[in-house]
Design a protein that fits this description.
Layout: E1 9-12, H1 18-29, E2 33-38, H2 46-59, E3 63-67, H3 73-85, E4 91-94, E5 100-101, H4 109-136, E6 141-145, H5 158-179, E7 184-190, H6 196-200, E8 203-204, H7 208-212, H8 220-233, H9 241-250, E9 258-261, H10 268-286
Parallel strand pairs: 1-2, 1-4, 2-3, 4-6, 5-8, 6-7, 7-9
Helix pairs in contact: 1-2, 1-9, 3-4, 4-5
Amino acid sequence: MHPSLTPRRVLITGSSTGFGHLAARSLAAEGHRVFAAMRAPDGRNAPARAALADFAREGGHDLRVVPLDVTDDRDVAACAESVAAQGGVDAVVHNAGVAAAGITEAFSADAMRHVFEVNVFGPQRVMRAFMPLLRAAAGATVVWVTSTDAREVMPFLGVYDASKAAQEALAEAWRYELHALGVRTVVIQPGTFPSTAILDKLVPADDPARAAAYGSLAGLPDAIVASLRELVAQGQAPDPRGVADLFAAALRPDAPHRMTLDPSGFDGAARINAVCDEVQRELLARVGLTHLLPTAR
């Protein structure tokens, strides 16, 4: 554990696979109490629950799996009550999410709504349910796992990129408002880290007739996904542990308010972040709200 960090009580959404699963292990191993939240821990994610339980038992770690479907109001409320009964939290990590790929016109409103339900409305539900616990904690932290796609817009990823841009805007607004309560906000922006789990949950466009009108472009989204699957199959996909390590870094009191990790080496999101930070500072100064702007690091 970093010398400047005391043990924290951390809830991580989307802990059945990927960044969340890795971070749940690493944070617990560092001595934090981790609430690894996931959907259906007694159903389809039972193997993930068992793996985390074995890890906790064998290492003597304080890692507790809790059921949480971020798209369900009652489920989120029940999770907050359960965590409160187990001592509450000092940090919430919004990691749960789904990706989507396809011709943008070919996404119905319902398909698009599902992506936003998980990526945008989900974190908002979790925030509202867990804010009483965060307000009661000293030096609480909220971590948002967005994406470089929140800043960089790619063709065929319009629905996903829109959801991540919305999530980024939410995180920024929460950051200013929570600063008044002494709660820190950190945003982590990973680049593309494909995995079988992510690709298997990919939300596709659901109107192929609309996609067909785009001719040869219609097949490009599937071709891109196939190439990512090939990277995973060949063991050439970027290592997601670097992103999971940022979860721990985000809990430190000296953490910057935004951290970007793009395995491609492209720094577009970081450059856009710098411009946005400058504009936001000027904007808040114009309206007399600079007291809501945490000191940038």
